[in-house]
């Protein structure tokens, strides 16, 4: 049997990576949107930008594939799931219920698929 990756597995890996990227962008948007909707202007705008900048810095330092202090497997996808779920809750708190629930569903699917693909080897 060949060690070559099957097209189906390759497609799942690509799809999971794309879902992960969209979730990362959604995390930034959710953090900004929560602050913007929760606090009066201009504080909401400033806090939203600060939250987004902090999330970018932390993701770059701890979660990105080439991060110097990358959280190791299996904690990394679980930490990502926690952050995505918190972003979903934040959206729900500012009345973006459908978007928040979708973010949470896709986050769970992304995490499950990450573990599934890792198990396949």
From TrEMBL:
InterPro entries the UniProt entry points to: DUF2568 (IPR021214)
- Stored Pfam families: DUF2568 (PF10823)
Q: Which keywords are on file for this protein? A: Membrane, Transmembrane, Transmembrane helix
TM helices/strands, residue ranges: 12-36, 42-63, 75-93
Indicate what this protein is called per its UniProt record: Membrane protein YdbS with pleckstrin-like domain
């Amino acid at each position: 049997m060949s060690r070559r990756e099957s097209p189906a597995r390759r497609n799942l890996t690509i799809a999971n990576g794309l879902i992960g990227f969209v979730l990362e962008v959604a995390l930034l948007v959710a953090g900004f949107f929560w602050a913007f909707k929760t606090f009066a202007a201009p504080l909401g705008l400033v806090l939203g930008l600060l939250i987004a900048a902090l999330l970018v810095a932390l993701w770059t330092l701890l979660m990105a594939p080439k991060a110097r202090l990358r959280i190791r497997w299996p904690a990394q996808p679980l930490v990502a799931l926690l952050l995505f779920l918190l972003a979903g809750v934040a959206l729900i708190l500012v009345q973006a219920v459908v978007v928040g629930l979708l973010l949470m569903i896709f986050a769970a699917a992304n995490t499950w698929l990450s573990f599934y693909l890792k198990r396949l080897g």
